[in-house]
Specification:
By secondary structure, this protein is an alpha+beta fold. It has two domains: 1-218, no CATH class; 219-371, Histidine kinase-like ATPase, C-terminal domain (Heat Shock Protein 90). The protein has nine helices and eight strands. The chain has helices at residues 8-43, 52-64, 67-85, 100-183, 191-217, 220-224, 227-242, 259-280, 320-331, and strands at 245-251, 284-291, 295-302, 309-310, 313-314, 335-341, 344-352, 366-371. The strands form two sheets. The protein has a six-stranded mixed sheet with strand order 6-7-3-2-1-8. Strands 4-5 form a two-stranded antiparallel sheet. The longest helix has 84 residues, at 100-183. Mean pLDDT is 78; it is low at 357-368.
Amino acid sequence: MHPRIEDLPHTVARTLGPYATALVAVVVALVARAIMHPFIHSQEPSTFMAYTTFMVATAFSAWFLGWGPSLLAIGVGLLVGDFFFVPPPYSLSAFSRNELPETITYLVACGVFLLIGIAKQKRTALLVEKNLQIEAANERLREMSAHLLRAQDEERRKIARDLHDSVGQYLSAIAMALAPLIQRAKDLPSDVPERLEQAIEITKVCASEVRTISHLLHPPLLEEMGLSSAVRWYAEGFAARSNIQVDLDVPEDLNRFGTDIELALFRVLQESLTNVHRHSGSKLARVSVGADAHRVWLEVRDHGKGIPQKEGRPAFRPGIGTTGMQERINELLGTLELTSDQTGTLVRAVIPLPAGPRSVQTGSGIATRHVS
């Protein structure tokens, strides 16, 4: 593929830049040698010292710029050093019989620097290649993780639908089938009606549990009504199940943000409140949801014992749930922050919104509720 015309200046700059830098290094070496010349000339009128600073320029070029700019620095340094600092001045006598040993020494030393630089460049190129391979492998892992999370969500949706539509319906049918038997149990032993009533009650409880599990796996409110309704529904159920009070700060008119964003934030809410119940010891959790024209965020804060710290860092390994939260948010180019101290723990997820027209949430319409 041929480079575009508009990219040509950048291509030329990348190609000629190292050579220009090598020439600048030689000029700096020339200036330094000129400053040193009065002191060196009085002690050593014609020797290897004419090329000392140019060897430094060659070493710099070999280490940072590559073999091409290094050869340029060697050649220009040889000519400039010979012309200005090898007696007789302003002449070229580097390869004369008297100056040949110094010239050979300079070239050998520069050759060593060049070989070292080439080895360094090869090693750097190898490290860059390995880093690219590692980054590519990490990218594949991230893609695989995102694919697994999507597959997990799809499987949860399917299981939830099957539980609700199949198992739940069967349990309801069993309860309805048992109910008329109580009316006809007069001729049966006295304990049969009581057992029938117990069976009906157990069936109803089982059906209710199946519906709850189905909704937890994939809440229908999330798709039908959006994040705001799903957060309220889940917080109320969590408070009832855990005896933990949940304070909600959620806009009544929160916009819809798309299935992926809403599902990711809902999963963060689920995992965070589960961790509050399992680990924090807090009897109060605060859930806040907000959005503006550019981003949407969710915060879950507790007032428990916090995460144990060791040398200023959390003294625990993130579990599957925390890792899953991070992967979901990363896939959407968002950030997940977890901060903790002796006063409690804060989980904050922020996801940028796609560009496009979207109404901005204001302070009005915020519903603050206490769920217990």
